[in-house]
Amino acid sequence: MVTENATGSDTSGIWYGVLAYTAWGILPLYWKLLNVVPAIEILAHRILWSFVFVFLIVLFSGKWQNLLATLSDRRSLFYTFLCGFLISLNWFTYIWAVNSNHVIEASMGYYINPLVMVFLSMTVLREKLGLWRLVAIALAATGVLIMTARYGRVPWVALFLAFSFAMYALSKKLLKVDAVTGLALETFIVTPIALIFIAGWQLNGNGAVGAVSLPVFLLLMGSGVVTAVPLLWFAAGTRRIRFYMMGFLQYIAPSISLFLGIFIFKEHFSLSHMVSFGFIWAGLIVFTLANLGLLREPEKQPLGG
Question: I want to staple 17 with a disulfide (CB 3.0 to 4.6 A). Which of 74, 237, 266, 285 is the partner?
Fold first, then answer.
């Protein structure tokens, strides 16, 4: 696992983002292995075992002082609670979508998400983008609009995934704590609710513990690792690079998920899907070329000729 340094270059931030989004892209394969367990119960175990895993990291890395300092700061505590709430909603929606055969719509949500992150970048963080980055956003937005029109209805799952994760990412940006401390507190805040839920289901005879096979139960426990590690990478990347750049790196995850939805899970992929994703990828290419300096921003002409 890559560990977070106190300081880092833009390059290291980009690599953290690539690692995080690649891991998230292949996660549908993991959740499909748990489709015998209800989505809400998977979420509860995901929160519980994420906390256990991150608690062990805190225990062995000596980050107790950071943890106590964050707990004593009201602003940090507020953003930590907000992060925990938002990511829990996002997790549940995504697990439900994957196990209800909505992988392509879920990937659509994460294609919309960078646009939301760019909007927040401009309006909340006052980050400047430049002409070519705005062109890239316009191309990607066109693809998203075509995809939305294709559904013939408001794609609520996609929109909820997009906005919940964008707000989570912004909260992480505003939370001035290291990745391990932040995730430990996020999961700590929602773990009591998860424990109550798991205990209630077990007492009612509906719980997975003791009812599922050992491999499935081990997968439930492992959900903590596959959840925490990409989130740690994501938090480290978010702190190192501009918010809008982190948003565009996110196209990695839905592209992988889209591939899985079409070729592994055999979900329907139409011509309109192809056109939509063509616009999105064109936007991504323009954005990448602009970041590499291969597309120059036009110089401002002085007034009066």
Answer: 237
